[in-house]
Amino acid sequence: MRPVIRFIIILTGSIMIGGCSFFQDKDEEILPAELIRFDEQLKIQQIWKTKIGKGSEFLHLSLLPSGDKQRVFLASHDGRIAAFQSKNGEREWDVELETELTSGPSYGSNRVIVVSKNGELICLRDDDGSEVWRVKIKGESIAIPLIRNDSITVLTIDGQLRNFSIFDGSERWMINQDMPSLTLRGASSPIGIGNNAIAGFDNGRLISVNIDSGIVQWESMLSPASGKTDLERLTDIDGVIKSIGQDIYAAGYQSQIASIAAESGQTLWTKELSSNAGVAIDEEMLFAVTDTGDLVGMNRSDGSEVWRKTILLRREVTAPTKFKSTVVVGDFEGYLHFFDHKTGELVSRKRVGKGAISGSPVVIDDYLYVQNESSEMAVFSISEESKSNISDVEITGGT
């Protein structure tokens, strides 16, 4: 049940009880934060917008734009994939796969990769969308496949990391992790560093695997499970993992946010922070969204907190995305919120549509691409008149 519906039911029930202040107070505590008024200091321009296929309301799938400065690829839950010219949104091709999709598309090596609901990995040619091959991966996946070293690495929700040849779909290796009896529905997409794939699992472990051989290089426990019940012991790594140089940054649910050395798996530092959304980074800063919707800016070197904004509490905020001088998140009402990356002040807000934004915004070349659960996709840029240093401008509004 969507939170907005649940909130209406709870609120209606409290009114019927007779206006008891106890229930009214409780309702106020669980409602999503209302959007604050603010002085817009950054002009965000919508370049183009499109819609593909039917939406995937309430499913929270990993259907995100992918591409380069020439073309961008989109996929819908009902099995449509299309290619558009990045500069103007002109459609180049559109195909129907006749199966429901749960993640993708991934783009690389002249191929477009998606995963179907019934556990199929599907490979298409990037120039016309024709199908190259389709294979069963023996599990459901809602993680974006990683294309690297002429192969595709896929993480399934039952804790299996599988690698397939990009040429014919033949399986090259498989690694299995023991999963706890209770997990969140979600998955962290693998990332590539050199010849290794880095993947996070629902047991709280982060592993590095050689993509060519399938040999595990190291395992690192982000945070050991604690508590007496299965619910208390949840430590899933379901959010976005990021790396810069030889440093990896990841966060877990009811766990920690950590910096980990890519070559050894050694933990460099940790801070208490619970997140199932994930992180974003730049040269100096690390950005994270907590389970309640706090947006936090931290020093990348030691994890010390620089700023924290609580204006999006309970709005089902996505993982943050660093876009030029801003940090961007989406929410359950389809809004994009742009924050100054140095101060955390809200500088702009745009709405993609009424559909929830459940996947993090994507930066391709100089543009920000956002797809919502209604299968609408919009492309944004920062207006030329706004390209001064927004951190030097005094902002008004709540925190």
Q: Over all CA atoms, what is the radius of gyration? A: 21 Å
Instruction: Tell how many strands the DSSP assignment holds.
Output: 33
Shape call: globular
Give the class from helix and strand content and strand pairing. mainly beta
Reported for the largest beta sheet, the result is: 5 strands, mixed
Unreliable stretches: 1-26, 388-399
SS summary, helix count: 2
Relative helix content: under 10%
Folded structure, characterized:
The chain is mostly beta strands. It has a domain at 1-31. Helices cover 6% and strands 42% of the residues. It contains two helices and 33 strands. It has helices at residues 3-17, 21-30; strands spanning 44-51, 62-63, 66-67, 71-75, 80-85, 91-96, 101-108, 111-116, 120-125, 131-136, 146-148, 151-155, 160-165, 171-176, 191-193, 196-200, 205-210, 216-221, 242-244, 247-251, 256-261, 267-272, 279-281, 285-289, 295-299, 305-309, 321-323, 326-330, 335-340, 346-351, 362-364, 367-371, 376-382. The strands form eight sheets. It has a five-stranded mixed sheet with strand order 2-7-8-9-10, with no helix packed on it. It has a four-stranded antiparallel sheet with strand order 1-33-32-31, with no helix packed on it. A four-stranded antiparallel sheet has the order 3-4-5-6, with no helix packed on it. Helix 1 packs antiparallel against helix 2 (21-30). The chain is globular and about 55 Å long. The chain starts with a helix and ends in a 17-residue tail after the last strand. Residues 1-26 and 388-399 have low confidence and may be disordered.
